[in-house]
Write a structure and sequence with these properties.
Blueprint: H1 7-10, H2 13-19, H3 27-54, E1 60-66, E2 83-87, H4 91-99, H5 103-114, E3 127-131
Antiparallel strand pairs: 1-2, 1-3
Helix pairs in contact: 3-4, 4-5
Length: 134
């Protein structure tokens, strides 16, 4: 978890000055504060996100948008369209990996999910985006 400056380490006047906008955070402290905020935000939404994505065991429908091929020579481009798939049974692990910023685990979970695409599995191993309504 990222650490942020606290009153005991910087004195009471500085945090109050930041809040009152009398002083500006330096770049390093702004980065630390931003990292701490997003870490806390992820942890606070994790339980609700798991509940919504698991959807009482029904899972969530996910739209998969293929990788942008605009910079690939036309003779090497693949004809790929957006796909939809129902995803079940992985959301707790996926949200935990997201909270912990575990990219390797997220990648492994993605590989598990796209196995259900059958022969087009490899075409969707790298995508532009995925989306769902939770």
């Amino acid at each position: 978890m990222a650490s942020i400056p606290c009153a005991s380490t910087v004195g009471w006047s500085k945090p109050m000055a930041w809040l009152a906008e009398e002083r500006i955070l330096n770049k390093a402290n702004r980065s630390r504060l931003d990292a701490a905020y997003w870490d806390l935000r992820r942890r606070n939404v994790a339980a609700d996100l798991k509940k919504r994505l698991n959807n009482h065991g029904r899972g969530t429908r996910v739209e998969i948008n293929p990788v942008d091929q605009s910079r690939v020579e036309s003779r090497h481009q693949r004809d790929l369209s957006s796909r939809s798939i129902s995803v079940r049974g992985v959301w707790d692990r996926a949200v935990d990996a997201w909270v912990n910023d575990d990219v390797d685990q997220l990648d492994a979970i993605w590989d598990d999910i796209i196995q259900d695409l059958g022969s087009e599995y490899d075409a969707y191993s790298n995508v532009s985006s995925i989306g769902w309504a939770a």
